[in-house]
Amino acid sequence: MLTFNRYLRATSLEEAYTEAQKKSSVVLGGGMWLRLGKRRIGTAIDLSDLGLCGVEETEDSYRIGAYTTLRDLECHAALNTQYSGVLRESLRAIVGVQFRNLATVGGSVFGRFGFSDVVTVLLALDASVELYKAGVVSLERFCTMGRVNDILTHVIIPKRSLSVSYHAQRNSATDFPVLNVCAARNGEQVTVCVGARPARAVAYRYTLDGTAGKAERIANEIASRAVFDSNTRATARYRRHLCCVLVRRALDDILEKEEA
Q1: Dihedral over alpha carbons 110, 118, 184, 152 (to 10 degrees)
Q2: How far does the chain reach from its first CA to its final CA, in angstroms?
Q3: For residue 260, what pLDDT is reported?
Q4: Contact indicator for 10, 19 with CB cutoff of 8 Å
């Protein structure tokens, strides 16, 4: 059961940041995963009054507030048009609509969960995170960092002409993914991200010349390079096999879309 001694509805980012420096303090996102834990929190920090909801479109990017819900992202017309509906496809299987109406983008990204569908897709889209004190940091770098005593305020996705495809394997609908893969191609450069290994998503970059043979070689190489582990959902061996299959499907999707 989750308990906390004090609830702080922050009136400024500075107030929230100062309180977050204490080891016993935690910033609340949607609280959907946090509430499942058995821990006692000193101060729960709520950022609801700081205007961190919504998607701001600029000439070269989409700037997503940390308190934007996954459902808002799933239903955002411009984002899904820009990226071939990959956000909608990756989010629609996360638990249920009621859950996605509460879970936030910031909470999903800041947690860097090993089972995350959100991080895998955003990593493939070359997203960055905006931290209150540290500024803008690439999501790829953020995923390799240890404990971060900062406040995530926005996720930034650059506007690019990409061909994108997402695939995941689940043992049952709405369950955590056994493995997920997102591939994004810009010209001949393709970024392939593999998540739910079960560990934080990682990105691999290759040149994809448009041939099925090259796609197969990339899939085999990523499956051999990536590190997998076993848990209650699948063995490391099964995940390695899935990786090869899902990467190949994602790359084939991209080639088919571009050919069409």
Answers
A1: -20
A2: 52
A3: 64
A4: yes
For the record, the structure tokens of 97 come out as 């609509």
Question: Residues spanned by CATH 3.30.390.50 within the chain?
Answer: 163-259
Q: What DSSP state is assigned to residue 126? A: T
Name the band, by pLDDT with cuts 50, 70 and 90, for residue 67.
very high
State how far the Cα of 135 lies from the Cα of 132, in Å rounded to an integer: 6
Q: Name the band, by pLDDT with cuts 50, 70 and 90, for residue 241.
A: very high
Cα 258 to Cα 241: distance, rounded to the nearest angstrom: 27
Q: Torsion over CA of 154, 159, 161 and 166, rounded to 10 degrees?
A: 10
Interval 50-64: pLDDT, tens: 999 999 999 999 999
Start-end of CATH 3.30.465.10 domains in the chain? 53-158
Q: Can you point out the beta strands (E) in the chain?
A: 3-9, 25-28, 40-46, 55-57, 61-65, 128-131, 135-138, 152-158, 163-170, 177-186, 189-195, 202-207
Q: Is 220 exposed, middle or buried (0-12, 13-18, 19+ CB in 10 A)?
A: middle
Q: What is the tally of helices (H) and strands (E) in the chain?
A: 10, 12
The letter for the amino acid at 131 is L
Instruction: State residue 11's pLDDT score.
Output: 94
Please tell me the distance from the alpha carbon of residue 16 to that of residue 6, in angstroms, as a whole number: 13
CATH number of the structural domain 53-158? 3.30.465.10
Please give the CATH superfamily to which domain 163-259 belongs: CO dehydrogenase flavoprotein, C-terminal domain (3.30.390.50)
Across 10-19, 136-145, 168-177, least confident range? 168-177
